[in-house]
Amino acid sequence: MLDFKILENVAYLYDGSFNGLLTIVFDCYLKKVIPSTILPKEYYVANLLEKSYFISTNEEKSNRIWHGISANISFTALYDCYHAFLSCQKQKDLAIVNYLLHGFKVGPSICHRLTLDYVLQVTKLRKRVFGEAHRLKGLVRLSEIGNNLWYSSISPDNNVIEQVGHFLIERFPTQNLILHDKNRNLAFLYTSKNRKNYEILEVPADFKVTSFSEEEKQFQKLWKTFFETIAIDERKNTRLQMQFMPKKYWKDLVEMN
Question: What is the pLDDT of residue 197?
């Protein structure tokens, strides 16, 4: 068991960044306390029965925790917690903080203590994030805007734009890319002139690309024709199709529009 005092009816709020969450880990470790609620400020709904405190992100504190995790727990723990953080699960924050605080006590073995609820939850969330990223890597469609600039949109449940973006860079290193996460209004930008760097920027909610090169339009037409032609009506299996290509992703697929 952790030697930390549980602060009942106390909420710690932060800016929603991973560094912000690591700042909370630092403060909890220093004060030997764990609040009953940890949430990004934008998701918190105030109530009369709970006291809330906003914890400002501190780069020095978060960097110390980041390096402390690698040195005193394991890189696997850092890897798992970061990717669990990218999930859409709103109860992830408290689980990650408990996982790391316990990890500082027991070391690398924390990764295998699946009988602990928060360790199991972090592991499941990491698998869920990687599962969606893997699925989208097979479904993402790039369309040429012009001048070697390519665009693709995705609508994932989890924040997997970075993983999918890295996949596209490795597969198409000489192409300039824009990967647009429509659910979070984020854009992953990569230029082939600077292959070591990329950017993830916020974009307006109404951001969209509708103009494509003439050659791209022809390829899209050919792809749709091919998709429709190879289908055998007697062998259609919509349920199986949706297992491999979930319906929630169809709006971003050329052949389904």
Answer: 84
Question: Strand runs (DSSP E) across 86-208, as ranges?
Answer: 143-146, 149-154, 176-181, 186-190, 199-202
Please choose, from the candidates 197, 181, 169, the residue with its C-alpha nearest in 3D space to the C-alpha of residue 86.
181
Q: How do beta strands 5-14 and 33-40 pair?
A: parallel
Burial of 80 (0-12, 13-18, 19+ CB in 10 A): buried
Residues 175-223: pLDDT tens digits? 999 999 999 999 999 998 876 789 999 999 999 888 899 999 999 999 9
Q: At what angle do helices 75-85 and 117-139 cross, to 10 degrees?
A: 70
Residue 237 per-residue DSSP state: -
pLDDT value at residue 232 = 82
Could you give the C-alpha distances from 145 to 124, 150, 152, 178, 215, in angstroms and in order?
A: 38, 6, 10, 10, 10
When pLDDT is averaged across residues 97-109 and rounded to a whole number, the result is 95
Burial of 38-51, coded b for 16+ CB within 10 Å and e otherwise, reads bbeeeebeeeeeee
DSSP state of 116: S
- How far is the C-alpha of 239 from the C-alpha of 241, rounded, in Å? 5
Closest Cα partner for 175 from 146, 136, 214?
A: 146
Phi, psi values for residue 49, rounded to 5°: -90, 0
Provide the 10 A C-beta neighbour count for residue 140.
19
